[in-house]
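To close the section, here is one more complete example, presented without commentary so you can practise reading it yourself. The ligand is pyroglutamic acid.
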Amino acid sequence: LVTGFERFGKEYSNPTERLARSFDGRTVGGEKIVGRVLPVSYRKVGTSLRLILDKEKPDVVVATGLAGGRTDVSVERVGVNAMDAQIPDNDGFSPHDAAVVKGGPAAYLSTFPCSKIVEDLRGKGVPATLSYSAGTFICNALLYHLLHYAQRRGIPKKAGFLHFPYLPTDVVSRESPFGMSKPSMSFPLMEKAVEVAVLDCLHGSTKSHGSRSQGIGG
Ligand code: PCA
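Output:
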């Protein structure tokens, strides 16, 4: 499963909506991909995700979202049990000091191979870094819901989140106060990133751990 998000706030577009649509129905590493677009809503995102997971029962979930201003693909390592909105979500809701799941653990670690994904993305010419915060907006809430579900149901086996920079077309008219454009990434590079992440998840689940731990880098 590859998920993206609809447009939100003052953003011109959300490249991850396009990513989810573009991957829907594709085959990657011999596996069929389902692509779904999720609502930018604290109240709806968990339910929407659960409906998809119950129906599709995916082995792997690569969730994606826009993090305008970030310089490269952020491979998110952790989802925290906190909702603190800096802007209202698409329902006009701005929670503060709230839990994603009441009584849930403070945080979950992503179960996809974060470091390997970063290494492989760079190896394939896609700028990427490991990130230890997906923020406290909807993307983090989604990651938390996803890992919470996986922890309880055992599905998906591998799950994580990629945050993407703006598209080049969305920054050319978005000058910063210093006259510099915001960082951006082309859509084909974003597609490459999702593909690499999916492949790394699939390889990890089909090959023995022994062969993985002997991989280059580490
Ligand atoms: N980015 C936002 C929400 C939806 C999206 O694409 C976030 O980082 O939380």
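Once you have examined the tokens, check your reading against these statements. The chain has a mean pLDDT of 92. Residues 71 and 197 are 18 Å apart (CA to CA).
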